[in-house]
Design a protein that fits this description.
Rossmann fold, 6-stranded parallel sheet, globular
Length: 423
């Protein structure tokens, strides 16, 4: 298994890599090839040292990660010109394949290979060249920012996402290694229903939609939200233009009196100063708190004291932050598209039309208004959030992954001319 990002104490891609690997190790012996960065090696080795049983079922091969430029024009280009990143990432994947090839050649005994993450379709790695059944996924990255919303991102970010949309549409149709990996795969896992539809429509490939971020059925702090004071909205995540937080700020500014509210914004990024300025211009800065990056413990402290999770993103696959919010019993207000549409049902949250800027602001404002005037709605959606967390938990999702593995083994055996040797 290649889990380029893997860390037991982080969320997003690193948390995905760790959770999938250790959950699957409950059922199979797993060898993970992982990037060595951000202290993950020490964290993983520490976990394994404390859990001898896990050590018997899983082992790690670490490869040094590539360093991003830290300053100057090169650093700016790294952030805004993705080919620089992907060139370095592809080289890392080539090295990961060399490690996998050596293990298969020298040790043998491997039944299947799995390209786990990063989940973007642009970099499928090279495991599909091994003489083993190849499973790929969760595959994501096929989503775009809606064209009608690009102008709201500003000139620089808007142009960047115009370029990304155009490149995305080309690459998901014609990128050679993407097509080769799909053709060689014996099992594909899609990050969301729209990705599964894209794979079927463009390439005739069937895939299984499985929650990318294995949720926790019920967090230890899970509870039904019954707000008594000001309604506490909370957002967690990177501060990027596509995250849509300005739409939430404008919607909150339009609330007409009524129940007081607060908005906790966790995380940081290139858009933080812009969002802070917007809150001041809208006259709501006294009710909006920017916490910056916080520890995982502090993150759950702030989520625990919240009442409603707000996630107005314009571009996502299967956001882990929503799974975390649901596991705590937080109702979710989010956009009605992409992975959010799969994750959030009317029983656990409110989905808002993101097709036009005005519709998104108006929809968020209406959702916030309903929640501020009806505490009973918050409680009902909170109960639904806990039920939804159960439905997308690892306990419910792992059997689907195991079945994908079984189908991959059966399909590979039936594949004409299948070869099982490596030199």
């Amino acid at each position: 298994m290649v889990a380029a990002a893997c860390h037991p104490d982080q969320g997003s891609e690193p948390g995905l890599g760790w959770n999938w690997a250790v959950r699957l190790a409950d059922h199979h012996d797993i060898t993970v090839i992982a990037g060595d960065f951000e202290g993950n090696r020490a964290a993983i080795e520490g976990r394994l040292a404390r859990d001898p049983d896990l050590t018997k079922r899983i082992r790690f091969e670490f490869l040094p990660w590539f360093d991003a430029p830290s300053s100057g024009v090169t650093a700016w280009l790294w952030n805004y010109y993705q080919p620089l990143y992907y060139a370095a990432y592809e080289q890392w994947m080539r090295e990961a394949f060399s490690v996998a090839h050596r293990l298969v050649r020298d040790e043998g005994g491997f039944d299947l290979c799995h390209q786990l993450n990063m989940i973007g379709f642009r970099e499928p790695g090279y495991l599909w060249q091994l003489p083993l059944p190849f499973v790929w996924g969760p595959v994501g990255g096929t989503q775009n920012v809606p064209w009608s919303m690009l102008a709201t991102l500003g000139p620089v970010e808007g142009l960047r996402h115009v370029s990304r949309n155009v490149i995305n549409e080309y690459q998901k149709r014609y990128f050679p290694r993407f097509r080769q990996a799909l053709a060689r795969s014996s099992g594909v896992i899609a990050v969301a229903s729209d990705t599964a539809d894209t794979l079927k429509r463009l390439h005739g490939v069937e895939s299984e939609v499985i929650a990318a971020a294995f949720g926790t059925a019920r967090h230890e702090r899970a509870r039904v939200r019954k707000p008594g004071g000001p309604l506490r909205f909370v957002y967690t995540g990177q501060h990027l233009s596509r995250k849509g937080v300005p739409f939430a700020l404008r919607a909150l500014a339009r609330l007409d009196g009524g129940r007081p509210w607060t908005f906790d914004i966790l995380g940081a990024g290139v858009m933080t100063p812009s969002w802070q300025n917007l809150a001041r211009r809208l006259g709501i800065a006294d009710r909006v708190t920017f916490h910056g990056f916080v520890t995982r413990e502090r993150l759950f402290d702030l989520l625990d004291r919240g009442d409603v999770y707000v996630f107005p993103s314009l571009l996502e696959g299967w956001p882990a932050s929503i799974a975390e919010a649901l596991s705590l019993g937080l109702p979710v207000v989010t956009t009605d598209h992409q992975g959010m549409r799969d994750m959030v049902t009317p029983a656990c949250g409110i989905l808002v039309d993101p097709s036009r800027p005005g519709r998104l602001v108006a929809g968020l404002r209406d959702a916030f208004e309903r929640l501020t005037v009806d505490p009973g709605l918050v409680a009902r959606l909170s109960e639904g959030a806990l039920r939804r967390a159960d439905e997308i938990s690892a306990e419910r999702q792992i059997p689907a992954v195991l079945e994908t593995y079984e189908r991959a083994l059966r399909r590979d055996l039936a594949r004409p001319g299948a070869v099982r040797s490596v030199s």
